[in-house]
Amino acid sequence: MNITVYLGSFPGNDPILREKVIELGNWIGSNDTIWSMAVRRMA
Questions:
Q1: CA 38, CA 32: separation in Å to the nearest integer?
Q2: Is 5 exposed, middle or buried (0-12, 13-18, 19+ CB in 10 A)?
Q3: Which residues contact 35 (CB under 8 A, 6 or more apart)?
Q4: What's residue 25's pLDDT?
Q5: Secondary structure in 3-state letters for the chain
Q6: Tens digit of each residue's pLDDT (9 = 90 or more) over 1-43
Q7: Maximum distance among all alpha carbons in the chain?
Q8: What is the domain partition of the chain in residue ranges?
C-alpha cells in the first residue's frame, strides 16, 4: 500500500487536524508500513 501525506509547517485553524494526523500516524505505524520522507531544499 502506498500512502502519500502532505503536511505543512502551520497546524491551521482547525483543532481536529492535529488529532487526525496523530490518528493517521498511529494507524500507519501499527500496520507495518515503511515511511519515506522527501524534504524540499531551501535555496
A1: 20
A2: exposed
A3: 28
A4: 82
A5: CCCCCCCCCCCCCCCHHHHHHHHHHHHHHCCCCCCCCCCCCCC
A6: 677 777 777 777 888 888 888 898 888 888 877 767 667 777 6
A7: 36
A8: 1-34
* Dihedral angle computed from the Cα positions of residues 36, 16, 8 and 23, in that order, rounded to the nearest 10 degrees: -10
Is pTM beyond 0.85 here?
Answer: no
Give the number of other Cβ atoms within 10 Å of residue 17's Cβ.
12
- How far, in Å, CA of 30 to CA of 16, rounded? 21
